[in-house]
Specification:
The structure is a single chain. By secondary structure, the protein is of the alpha+beta class. The protein is 41% helix and 18% strand. The chain folds into two domains: 63 residues, Nuclear Transport Factor 2, Chain: A, CATH 3.10.450; 144 residues, Glutaredoxin. The strands form three sheets. It has a five-stranded mixed sheet. A hairpin with a 2-residue loop joins strand 2 and strand 3. The protein is globular.
Length: 248
C-alpha cells in the first residue's frame, strides 16, 4: 500500500512538473506577425503565406499579389515563374482570385446584355462617362452576334460622391436598367434626382479595386484573365479564343 502511494505521488509530481513547464513556455509567435507592421494598414496574417520560393512570403489582397522576404528587408512587386514549366505562377493566382471575387456577386446585381446562345461571357467594369466604355457599348449588337455575353459592373473612375458615381446609381434605380445604361452612354440626360437604396455601385467599385482595375473598360473573362482597355468586337473575339485555347 505504501509502495502504491509512493508511485502515485511520483506520477502526480511528474504531471505537475510538465504542467508548470508548459505554462512557463511562451506561446509560439507567428513569424508573420512582425512582417505585418511593414505592410499597409488593415493587412491580416492570412494575407501572408509561404511562396514557392523558400524564405519569401506571398502577400495577397484581392487579386493583387506581391512578395516579401522573411526578414522583412525586401518587398518584391512582380511575377514568379516556374522555370521548368514556364508558367507564370503569380498570374495563375490572380486569375483564380478574380474568378472568386466576381463570383461573389450575384448576376442580379449586374447589367447583362446577352445573345440567346452565348459562347463566351465577359465581365466588364464600366464607367458611364468613359469614352472607350461608350465605344465598346455602341458595339453591343455586334458583340452579341458574335456570341459574347456582356455582364456589366459599375466602376466610376472618379470615385464616390462624383457625378459619374451618381449617374451609375441613377441607372441602377431606373425601371429599365439596360435601356437607361444605353441612353446614358449615348449622352442622353438623366434624372439625377432619381434615388433608390441599396445600389451595388459601392460594392462593385471596391471589388474592382481589389481585382486591380485601374481604368475602364476593364474586361475579365470567365477564367479570370484580365483584358485592359477597349477592343474592336472581332479583335476581342479572337482574344477570347486565344485565351480559351491557352487554358487547355
Amino acid at each position: 500500500m505504501l509502495r502504491y502511494a509512493a508511485v502515485l505521488a511520483l506520477l502526480l509530481s511528474a504531471a505537475l512538473s510538465e504542467v508548470r513547464a508548459a505554462a512557463a513556455d511562451p506561446p509560439a509567435v507567428d513569424p508573420r506577425a512582425a512582417l505585418l507592421k511593414l505592410l499597409p494598414a488593415g493587412s491580416k496574417l492570412e494575407d501572408l503565406r509561404p511562396s514557392p520560393i523558400p524564405g519569401i512570403y506571398e502577400f495577397m489582397q484581392g487579386a493583387e499579389i506581391s512578395y516579401l522576404t522573411a526578414d522583412g528587408k525586401y518587398f518584391i512587386d512582380g511575377n514568379v515563374y516556374d522555370m521548368k514549366s514556364r508558367d507564370n505562377l503569380t498570374e495563375a493566382l490572380r486569375t483564380h482570385a478574380r474568378v472568386a471575387l466576381i463570383n461573389s456577386v450575384p448576376e442580379s446585381e449586374m447589367l447583362i446584355f446577352s445573345p440567346v446562345n452565348p459562347k463566351y461571357t465577359i465581365t466588364v467594369f464600366t464607367d458611364v462617362d468613359c469614352a472607350y466604355c461608350r465605344k465598346l457599348h455602341s458595339h453591343m449588337a455586334e458583340l452579341n452576334r458574335l456570341g459574347i455575353r456582356v455582364r456589366y459592373m459599375f466602376f466610376p473612375r472618379t470615385g464616390p460622391g462624383t457625378e459619374s458615381w451618381k449617374k451609375a446609381e441613377v441607372v441602377w434605380c431606373s425601371a429599365n436598367r439596360n435601356e437607361a445604361l444605353t441612353q446614358a452612354k449615348a449622352g442622353a440626360p438623366l434624372d439625377m434626382n432619381k434615388i433608390c437604396a441599396p445600389t451595388p455601385v459601392k460594392r462593385e467599385y471596391e471589388l474592382g479595386e481589389n481585382i486591380g482595375v485601374r481604368g475602364t473598360p476593364a474586361i475579365v473573362t470567365e477564367n479570370g484573365d484580365y483584358i485592359s482597355g477597349y477592343m474592336e468586337p472581332r479583335e476581342l473575339l479572337d482574344q477570347l479564343k486565344e485565351l480559351q485555347v491557352a487554358k487547355r
